[in-house]
Amino acid sequence: MDKKWKVLALWVLPITIVVLITWQILGSSTNTQVSQSANTTNQSRNAPVAKISYGRFLDYVKAGRVTSVDIYDGGRNAIVESVDPEIDNRVQRLRVDLPGLAPELVSSLKEEGISFDIHPPKTAPAGLGILGNLLFPLILIGGLILLSRRSNSMPGGPGQAMQFGKTKARFAMEAETGVKFDDVAGVNEAKQDLEEVVTFLKQPERFTSVGAQIPRGVLLVGPPGTGKTLLAKAIAGEAGVPFFSLSGSEFVEMFVGVGASRVRDLFKRAKENSPCLIFIDEIDAVGRQRGAGIGGGNDEREQTLNQLLTEMDGFEGNSGIIIIAATNRPDVLDSALMRPGRFDRQVTVDAPDITGRLSILKVHSRNKKLEKDLTLESIARRTPGFTGADLANLLNEAAILTARRRKDQIGLSEIDDAVDRIIAGMEGQPLVDGRSKRLIAYHEVGHALIGSLVKDHDPVQKVTVIPRGQAKGLTWFSPDDDQTLISRAQLKARIMGALGGRAAEDIIFGREEVTTAAGGDVQQVASMARQMVTRFGMSSLGPVSLEGDSQEVFVGRSLMNTSDISDEISKQIDEQVRKIVKKCYEETLEIVENNRSAMDKLVEILIEKETMDGEEFCKILSEYTTIPEKDRFIPVLQDPK
Ligand code: ADP
Ligand code: MG
Ligand code: ZN
């Protein structure tokens, strides 16, 4: 009996290995096929497959521009064919990252009559599939036998089964990134801090000869799109060392133990190639505070994190490896990561100020043709809050619009349209004149009216009743460049401005006729008012913070936090929030009430012209009432460098 099992085990195991390897090869070859086929079809058209956001994709679907959709990877990405009505219905192929195979997406594709195809992640030939099915139980049995044999006969125990992770070394290595510090603009402080790291990599002896310990890890902290990945690449590029990169979310995989073994592999490869730079993107995906989640789902993450810590402790003082990690949530990171000898240096990479934006625009406009009277300064001035990635995207969108309009130089109107599109989405078809359009016009004029007449509100830049993205109409305000501190009066003004639309509907059409148009506004109002009470201590509850960062992404900690607040306090918070909103709404109603005739006139013009800029709006409004002078902060522009 025993012998029979041994024979079975001896036979099944080689088969198991063969089958596993075959699957592996098939799996990876189909995966690469996806991108390759996309590449080859496009090479013939001389353009890489452009990537668009999921939101943009949905807009295209709605606008009827999509002709076919091929979904890959179990719904994680897709190649989309869309036509562009503005350039003779030319067909474009675009790549989209999907949030998964959502049934709503499938049904909306069906509804729009778009042909779509779902490609299974691994397409083994049918025969092999059946064979595979038959073999699966055998593999299990074989594996179990192997495990029991190993643990009986060898002291090493069942560690062998963990070899899984090894075959899929999915980190990227670039021998030469080709990015230099000159390509990263507008983040001079961060660059200065990081210049030292380049020296650590290039001439470690300079530091070790005087007994200095070279730091192992640097944490880049900043919102998405500010150039963290780019900076890390630039460091490697300047130092001329290989660049290993891996994203935190890739660590966390289905099989337990894979994440940890990937970390091990990564460090092994890095040591073979030192000096080098390891870049771990989104480190918060693995590096969150341990023991914080609920249930057992975090074992994998913890193992990975432990492995990372072990590896970081493991290499000697000057092995020539420097680890750079990026995150926008430093607050959730495990404190063990911040200990000396790990990521003990933090470099902040913030969204650029106006001078920073100007220098980023200089980098990205190198290969673009701009009209003479379009200065980069004017673009920098109208893009407060834009990150480096936004600006790069802006210039690209503007270039696309320019080509579509058959012009050969980017002009101001293309920049304007691209800014609008990046902030609010694609422009839709204007509504036909009717009750809805009238209501939307009053709603928007309501926002703009309050924005103009409340002293602490940002001035109106533009009002429009042309739909864009999800919105039926929009009012744009031009925010100050300096938004670091916001006063209570400004917050109140913003709440009133957001309530302006609803107030106008309320007064002109009556309480029963108000619409869902104000849904988004009301949400904003609630969150602003709540933050005034709970985070900024701006209510009569006094200057106490009653909640931490409430957008806690992981459940464990936020549950702990909220339980700190007693029922009594949360009742008081609600009361205060309601009091603020009620007061603001009353003041808003009063302003709308007092300016009805101005509104009627403005709505008349808006319906006819569909878009009105801030100057024109104020000119008409000033015929009816006095508009308060606004305190504006006009930043001085220093020429970068
Ligand atoms: P992050 O990693 O911070 O999310 P990335 O480094 O991936 O941002 O930036 C994405 C792209 O945006 C870059 O490839 C680059 O084209 C552009 N970009 C972002 N920040 C800058 C910057 N400071 N200077 C120049 N380009 C930038
Ligand atoms: Mg990045
Ligand atoms: Zn509104």
Task: Furnish the topology, listing elements before pairings.
Layout: H1 2-43, E1 50-52, H2 54-62, E2 66-72, E3 77-84, E4 90-97, H3 103-111, E5 115-118, H4 126-153, H5 164-167, E6 172-174, H6 188-202, H7 204-208, E7 217-221, H8 228-239, E8 243-247, H9 248-251, H10 258-272, E9 276-281, H11 284-287, H12 299-314, E10 321-327, E11 345-348, H13 354-364, H14 376-381, H15 388-404, H16 412-424, H17 435-453, E12 460-464, E13 474-477, H18 488-509, H19 519-534, H20 555-562, H21 567-594, H22 596-609, E14 611-613, H23 614-622
Parallel strand pairs: 1-4, 2-5, 7-10, 7-11, 8-9, 9-10
Antiparallel strand pairs: 2-3, 3-4, 6-8, 12-13, 12-14
Helix pairs in contact: 1-4, 6-8, 10-12, 13-15, 15-16, 17-18, 17-22, 18-19, 18-21, 19-21
The chain binds adenosine-5'-diphosphate, magnesium ion and zinc ion.
Zinc ion binds near residues 447, 501 and 521.
Tell me what you see in this structure.
Helix 17 (435-453) packs antiparallel against helix 18 (488-509) and helix 19 crosses helix 21. The protein has helices at residues 2-43, 54-62, 103-111, 126-153, 164-167, 188-202, 204-208, 228-239, 248-251, 258-272, 284-287, 299-314, 354-364, 376-381, 388-404, 412-424, 435-453, 488-509, 519-534, 555-562, 567-594, 596-609, 614-622, and strands at 50-52, 66-72, 77-84, 90-97, 115-118, 172-174, 217-221, 243-247, 276-281, 321-327, 345-348, 460-464, 474-477, 611-613. The protein has five domains: 1-46 and 131-163; 50-124, Signal recognition particle alu RNA binding heterodimer, srp9/1; 170-344, Rossmann fold; 354-424, Helicase, Ruva Protein, domain 3 (Orthogonal Bundle); 435-621, Peptidase M41 (Methane Monooxygenase Hydroxylase, Chain G, domain 1). The N and C termini lie far apart (82 Å). The model is unreliable at 12-47, 151-169 and 549-561 (pLDDT under 50). It is built from 23 helices and 14 strands. A hairpin with a 4-residue loop joins strand 2 (66-72) and strand 3 (77-84). A six-stranded mixed sheet has the order 6-8-9-10-7-11, sandwiched between helices. The radius of gyration is 29 Å and the shape is globular. With 641 residues, the protein is an alpha/beta fold. The structure holds adenosine-5'-diphosphate, magnesium ion and zinc ion. Residues 184-187, 224-230, 326, 360, 363, 388-389, 392 line the site of adenosine-5'-diphosphate (ADP).
